[in-house]
Specification:
The chain is α/β, with parallel strands linked by helices. The protein contains 11 helices and 9 strands. Strand 1, helix 1 and strand 2 form a beta-alpha-beta unit. It is globular and about 70 Å long.
């Protein structure tokens, strides 16, 4: 199934990612409606042509019209929303999400849902250090990766639709991972990096450091401007995968510490050569 076969898309949660989805889909001519927590968010989305209709209420008609529903909510809010409102979905509706952790979410949602509604999980590997619809932009998808996270409960049509959504949004690469593999990869590639940035910003409170820094520090700590409500939930939800990655990082940091302490220049250079070689693989492809 392709996205072009659908008539109505509903986005629940018009923050940074939900707003960026809306912007990208509206530009391609899709009918997009939205549900947000604050009226100011709905007003902004309408004023900037990001949605056709919007509300802060649970509108059975608006929900019931949707062929595809994209959930851009925190994990626990997403689960509660489904528990309280799934009766309003039309039969045959497809649901997807942007949730950063899949364990404890995908199985729960799929077990809760009616049999005539399908949830196919996804994770757009894109974002900014700022939040809110006013910071949304479809530009964040360019050169970025999009992960589809199917289970044995998903149909080929839903998986195809989810992959097509990633391509229509403008992602550079669309991949598939299992729930377990997704959470292990995300623990290293996303959550650990945020842990490092937060720790780096908290470890030195010397006054006026911002007057002396160069771009390397700014680049490394960009993601330290963090949404503490969201990321603390993601860290704890995925702690079984995150903590081993933190241990692995500590071991490698300690190894570099020991090399510097002992004056082992060749050992330091060997680590740097490994770092340089691996880093080259991560450059974004437009």
């Amino acid at each position: 199934m392709k996205l072009d076969h659908l008539q109505n898309i509903l986005i629940v949660g018009l923050g940074l990612l939900g707003g960026s989805y809306a912007m990208a889909l509206k530009k391609q001519g899709y009918r997009v409606n939205g549900i947000a927590r604050r009226q100011e968010t709905v007003d902004y989305a309408l004023a900037h042509g990001m949605i056709d209709r919007g509300t802060t209420e649970i509108d059975p008609e608006l929900i019931g019209q949707a062929d595809l529903v994209v959930f851009a909510l925190y994990p626990h809010i997403f689960i509660d929303w489904i528990k309280q409102n799934q009766q309003y979905f039309k039969s045959g509706a497809i649901l997807t999400d942007v949730t950063g952790v899949k364990g404890g979410v995908v199985d729960v949602i799929q077990s809760l849902l009616r049999e005539d509604v399908e949830f196919i999980a996804a994770h757009p590997m894109a974002g900014r250090e700022t939040c809110g619809i006013e910071n949304s932009s479809d530009e964040i998808f360019k050169g970025a990766n999009y992960i589809v996270v199917p289970t044995e409960k998903n149909t080929p049509d839903a998986i195809e639709l989810c992959r097509d959504l990633g391509e229509k949004l403008g992602f550079c690469r669309v991949a598939e991972l299992s729930v377990d593999m997704h959470d292990r990869m995300i623990a290293f590639l996303s959550q650990l990096t945020h842990c490092i940035a937060v720790t780096l910003m908290c470890c030195n409170n010397t006054p006026d450091l911002e007057y002396y820094t160069g771009d390397s520090f700014r680049d490394l700590t960009r993601i330290a401007r963090i949404n503490d409500e969201m990321w603390s939930e993601l860290f704890l939800d995925n702690r079984h995968a995150l903590l081993p990655e933190m241990d692995r990082f500590r071991r490698e940091f300690d190894r570099l510490y020991d090399l510097i302490q002992s004056g082992d220049r060749e050992g330091i250079r060997k680590m740097m050569r490994c770092s340089t070689e691996r880093r080259q693989r991560f450059d974004k492809k437009e």
